[in-house]
Structure to design on (1123 residues):
């Protein structure tokens, strides 16, 4: 199923103008559709009773059905249907009450039955849409359909003395193939769309979205045409682009190649190509040279899947708040700037983390956002861990911000406490106590330190009084130094100003 | 359950191999003989009848072990060995070699599976094993059940016990020959377009194909998934009812298996024995006009007419019905069955099991030669026809057209059953033909299925029962077709007919 | 419709079927293809009798259970078959280190 086959030429709705700016040449626009393959997060396979865990020893999760033993029959996994419906509801798509599994035939050693069970004419999810952010503002990308199918196994080409090894552990893992209309007009838009889908499937908890492990993969259909043309150019299909970085580079390369070929007066050959990241170029896939004839027909082992309203309503009721809605709520309920809200809701775990921190008593939402997008995000990034693996649970982050708000510690000390807590030194309060970091707010105690500093630095005092008020910072620093940073900085400022002004 | 089987082949004077299942069940419980003795008796008959080529594998050791286990269960005499609960305990039977049997060669009559030791039991096999049945072996068949003469098997042709120069029918030809020669009391079969009923007719047996979905297809190597259905070849309807009941039932591992209770067929047969002598009173038998045309051999037509007269004498009334699209049955079937077969047989590629060609140059060479060497000519023809009718540019004209005809054919049956309880007619247009007679002409072979394959297209239950002999002393089969899910009505009709006739007791002289 | 030898070659390739034994000569191969072409043409002639019946407006029926509007049964998401690799690879033509082996495949 190729998006470019089904899209009608007028697809782009005002996209031509955007696209013109995207290409240096100015007179070509690219027309791109993506097919995203998302491995669904189920325990067992879509039609077979074996496990879907990643990384098991070869063929230990390849049950009889997964290796295509004669006589064994597929039985549909309800969870896979639920996850597909969850996605469909999230993109406002039509959920088809009746969908049909079909067999798609081709010979390849990692396809054990000689056919893949997929959905063809009647997919589970019909037309929907997704909004992406582009340089020119938000843009709606139409989703043609999303259908359920089984994954193939893996072919390993190394280390078998010129032979290929076949591991069928992955064979039969449920996939949702999400097909977009050819609404994307640049590699950047394609990448934005792909990121959006990725965030969404993780948000919905229908996939772990792990690109390294192959649970999130993408094919792109690329063509170019002269701006103003309505007919589509000949397309090529780029297979298995497995990182966000490469999707943009691969499409960029392919678009440039199309334009070069067309400008030199040649025709684009409709073919399947593979992106070679090392060389940053695409090349035709040898195994796909011959035209395929997949000979689809309804799988006679599987009656039509009929979903009733109860089924769909139950999935809808369990649907989490979607990223866009959550972003709007973060703006309105927490008063966050749009950028903060967008960043915090890009990932469900991050948004959940923020909500539980910001929801704690005495925590200011904006401060929480600053800390989470600042020190917290930096630490995650530095250690290469996800929000779920963070050593600092949200309750401790909230405690830190409470201690900041009630002036137990200063902002500077808070950074120290954060670092210590991240290193696993203990709870926030325990660290403050153990390290003796409790802030000094006692007026008399600060005043006595201030008096000593004023006495010790007559020259700076004189300069201040002569109107060089910048020197105040130096004196504040001396007070903080003398209190090991524990004095409340605003109290220090206030007392110091009174003292210097008072002596005037 | 009532074991007073007046219709079965029992008189106590008859030899052991001509007794009914119910008679064996009684004898085993009376300790007249043990299951081991019974099993040895049939194993000896199998060995003596090798020239029929009915078996691909004889599982002698396993059979004796199963028989010993059955004897222990019988000796325990607990509720597990009760004849009602375990009517097949200790009874020998044979499986068509299309059913997977754990640890035993499951060849499907094909070179491509000539080394395939199945790693699991088919649900049918499992159910019968649990019931205490003793498997004496795996019977010959047309390769992957594709054929009507049992001549496409890589294990060689099977001979008809009634005339060893003739075919036993197919594709369950080995099962039919084995039961007809009394090498086993009963055998499983599969029926995609007539593969139980046609050999039953040609070998003088009672063969039933239940409604699609009644018996699990798990472990039955698929030929055409929307048409395949397992069933039984037996010498009489009462035996068939017992075995069908034991093998039928819901299987969660087959998405097309019906989630319905299995009727107690033996009890229904027992209760149908009316004292009045008119047990079929109130039943209307529809006679499809299209099944009584000029293409039926005169001897066959005469036997069918006589059988219908007998059914009327038992109280049934007959009415002519029409199946106006039945002429499309063969063309429709020979599009859909090969289409599904081409898909189902794609898995036999020499990679994970089965025959692999030596010294393949590359993967495509490995595929083409493993499959080229492994499949016989008829299977290749069907794969090619199936590949063609599904291919781009031809799908609508062939596959889709056939699906539409399938609807019309099913609708014809539905309308017919509005005016009758079951349908009757000849199972085949002629009796057994000679070995080699039709092997060069696939189309002539296909026409054997003219009265049987529309039934599979509609998923209906049907059986064939012996209804006399032609002038060459070859058996003639009467087909009885039931409405969807109604195996009971044709089974009851067959049972009543067999109480009044003795065609089903006839045995080929050499095997009496 | 009559099937040509070229069509036979295309179909046989799609179905990955060598129609003649490997050691046969080109002539024998051609004769083999010719015979398949003739037989398939005959079979298609038989099935084209379908065209005698008008099916305009008839809904296709791909499965008998469609008549009863049977719905696909959905199973619980449970793992019930665990590792049986040793059993399955015992019957494999070529396996090593747990992998099925085939001649090198080029992508």
């Amino acid at each position: 199923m190729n998006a470019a086959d089904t899209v009608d030429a007028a697809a782009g709705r005002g996209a031509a103008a955007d696209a013109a700016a995207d290409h240096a040449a100015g007179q070509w626009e690219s027309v791109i559709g993506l097919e995203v393959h998302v491995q669904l997060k189920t325990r067992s396979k879509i039609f077979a009773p074996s496990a879907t865990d990643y990384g098991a020893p070869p063929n230990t999760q390849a049950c009889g059905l997964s290796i295509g033993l004669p006589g064994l029959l597929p039985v549909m996994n309800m969870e896979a249907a639920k996850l597909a419906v969850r996605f469909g509801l999230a993109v406002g798509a039509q959920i088809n009450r009746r969908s049909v599994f079909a067999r798609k035939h081709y010979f390849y050693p990692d396809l054990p039955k000689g056919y893949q069970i997929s959905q063809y004419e009647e997919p589970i999810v019909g037309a929907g849409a997704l909004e992406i952010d582009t340089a020119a503002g938000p843009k709606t990308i139409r989703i043609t359909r999303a259908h359920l199918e089984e994954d193939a196994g893996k072919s390993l080409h190394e280390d078998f003395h010129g032979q290929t090894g076949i591991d069928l552990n992955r064979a039969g893992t449920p996939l949702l193939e999400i097909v977009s209309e050819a609404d994307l007009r640049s590699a950047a838009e394609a990448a934005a769309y792909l990121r959006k889908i990725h965030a969404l499937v993780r948000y919905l908890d229908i996939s772990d979205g792990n690109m390294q492990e192959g649970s999130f993969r993408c094919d792109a259909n690329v063509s170019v045409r002269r701006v103003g043309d309505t007919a589509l150019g000949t397309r090529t299909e780029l297979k298995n682009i497995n990182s966000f970085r490469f999707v943009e580079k691969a499409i960029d390369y392919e678009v440039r190649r199309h334009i070069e070929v067309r400008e030199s007066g040649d025709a684009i050959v409709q073919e399947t190509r593979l992106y070679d990241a090392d060389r940053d170029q695409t090349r035709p896939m040898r195994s796909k040279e011959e035209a395929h004839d997949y000979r689809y027909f309804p799988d006679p082992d599987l009656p039509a899947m009929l979903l009733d309203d109860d089924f769909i309503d139950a999935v809808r009721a369990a649907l989490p708040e979607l990223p866009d809605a959550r972003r709007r709520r973060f703006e309105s309920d927490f008063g966050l700037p749009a950028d903060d809200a967008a960043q915090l809701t890009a990932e469900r775990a991050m948004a959940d983390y923020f909500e539980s921190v910001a929801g704690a008593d005495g925590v200011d939402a904006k401060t929480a956002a600053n800390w989470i997008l600042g020190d917290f995000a930096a630490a995650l990034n530095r250690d290469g861990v996800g929000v779920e693996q963070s050593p600092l649970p949200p309750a401790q982050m909230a405690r830190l911000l409470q201690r900041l708000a009630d002036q137990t510690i200063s902002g500077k000390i808070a950074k120290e406490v954060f670092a210590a807590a991240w290193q696993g030194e203990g709870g926030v309060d325990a660290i403050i106590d153990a390290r003796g970091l409790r802030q000094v707010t006692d007026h008399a105690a600060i005043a006595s330190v201030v008096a000593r500093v004023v006495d010790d630095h007559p020259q700076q005092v004189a300069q201040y009084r002569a109107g060089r008020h910048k020197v105040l910072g130096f004196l504040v620093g001396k007070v903080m130094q003398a209190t090991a940073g524990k004095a409340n900085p605003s109290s220090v400022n206030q007392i110091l100003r009174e003292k210097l002004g008072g002596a005037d | 359950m009532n074991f007073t089987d007046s219709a079965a082949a029992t008189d106590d004077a008859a030899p052991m191999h001509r007794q009914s299942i119910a008679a064996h069940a009684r004898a085993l419980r009376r300790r007249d003989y043990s299951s081991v003795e019974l099993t040895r008796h049939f194993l000896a008959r199998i060995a003596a009848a090798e020239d029929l080529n009915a078996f691909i594998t004889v599982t002698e050791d396993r059979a004796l072990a199963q028989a010993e286990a059955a004897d222990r269960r019988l000796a325990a005499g607990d509720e597990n060995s009760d004849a009602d609960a375990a009517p097949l305990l200790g009874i020998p039977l044979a499986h068509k070699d299309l059913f997977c049997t754990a640890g035993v060669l499951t060849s499907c009559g094909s070179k491509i599976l000539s080394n395939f030791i199945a790693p699991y039991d088919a649900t049918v096999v499992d159910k019968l094993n649990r019931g205490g049945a003793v498997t004496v072996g795996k019977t010959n068949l047309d390769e992957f059940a594709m054929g009507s003469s049992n001549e496409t098997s890589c294990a060689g042709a099977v001979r008809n016990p009634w005339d060893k120069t003739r075919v036993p029918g197919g594709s369950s030809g080995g099962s039919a020959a084995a039961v007809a020669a009394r090498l086993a009391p009963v055998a499983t079969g599969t029926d995609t377009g007539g593969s139980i009923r046609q050999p039953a007719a040609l070998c003088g047996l009672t063969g039933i194909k239940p409604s699609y979905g009644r018996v699990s297809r798990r472990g039955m190597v698929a030929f055409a998934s929307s048409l395949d259905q397992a069933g039984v070849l037996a010498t009489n309807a009462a035996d068939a009812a017992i075995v069908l009941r034991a093998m039928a039932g819901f299987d969660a591992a087959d998405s097309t298996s019906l989630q319905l209770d299995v009727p107690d067929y033996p009890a229904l047969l027992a209760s149908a024995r009316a004292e009045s002598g008119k047990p079929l009173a109130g039943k209307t038998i529809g006679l499809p006009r299209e099944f009584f045309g000029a293409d039926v051999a005169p001897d066959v037509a005469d036997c069918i007419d006589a059988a219908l007269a007998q059914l009327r004498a038992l109280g049934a009334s007959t009415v002519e019905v029409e199946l106006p699209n039945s002429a499309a049955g063969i063309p429709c079937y020979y599009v859909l069955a090969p289409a599904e077969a081409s898909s189902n047989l794609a898995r036999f590629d020499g990679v994970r099991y089965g025959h692999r060609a030596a010294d393949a140059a590359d993967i495509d060479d490995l595929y083409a030669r493993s499959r080229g060497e492994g499949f016989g000519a008829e299977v290749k023809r069907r794969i090619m026809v199936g590949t063609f009718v599904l291919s781009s540019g031809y799908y609508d004209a062939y596959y889709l057209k056939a699906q539409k005809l399938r609807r019309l054919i099913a609708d014809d049956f539905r309308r017919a059953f509005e005016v009758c309880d079951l349908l009757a007619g000849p199972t085949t247009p002629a009796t057994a033909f000679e070995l080699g007679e039709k092997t060069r002409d696939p189309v002539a072979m296909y026409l054997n299925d003219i009265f049987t394959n529309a039934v599979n297209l509609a998923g209906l239950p049907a059986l064939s029962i012996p209804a006399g002999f032609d002038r060459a002393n070859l058996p003639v089969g009467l087909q009885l077709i039931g409405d969807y899910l109604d195996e009971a009505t044709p089974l009851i009709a067959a049972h009543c007919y067999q109480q009044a006739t003795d065609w089903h007791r006839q045995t080929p002289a050499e095997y009496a | 419709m009559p099937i040509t030898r070229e069509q036979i070659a295309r179909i046989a390739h799609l179905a990955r079927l060598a129609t003649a034994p490997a050691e046969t000569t080109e002539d024998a191969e051609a004769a083999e293809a010719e015979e398949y072409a003739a037989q398939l043409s005959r079979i298609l002639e038989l099935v084209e009798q379908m065209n005698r019946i008008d099916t305009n407006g008839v809904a296709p029926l791909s499965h008998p259970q469609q008549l009863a509007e049977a719905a696909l049964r959905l199973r619980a998401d449970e793992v019930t078959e665990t590792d049986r690799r040793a059993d399955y690879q015992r019957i494999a033509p070529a396996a090593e280190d747990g992998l099925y082996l085939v001649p090198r495949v080029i992508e």
Q: What stands out?
A: The first helix of chain B runs from residue 21 to 30. Chain B has a mean pLDDT of 95. The interface with chain A takes residues 99-100, 106, 108, 113, 116, 118-120, 122, 217-222, 224-226, 252-256, 339-340, 342-343, 345-349, 351-353, 363-364, 367, 387, 390-392, 395, 399 of chain B (CB under 8 Å). DSSP finds 16 helices and eleven strands in chain B.
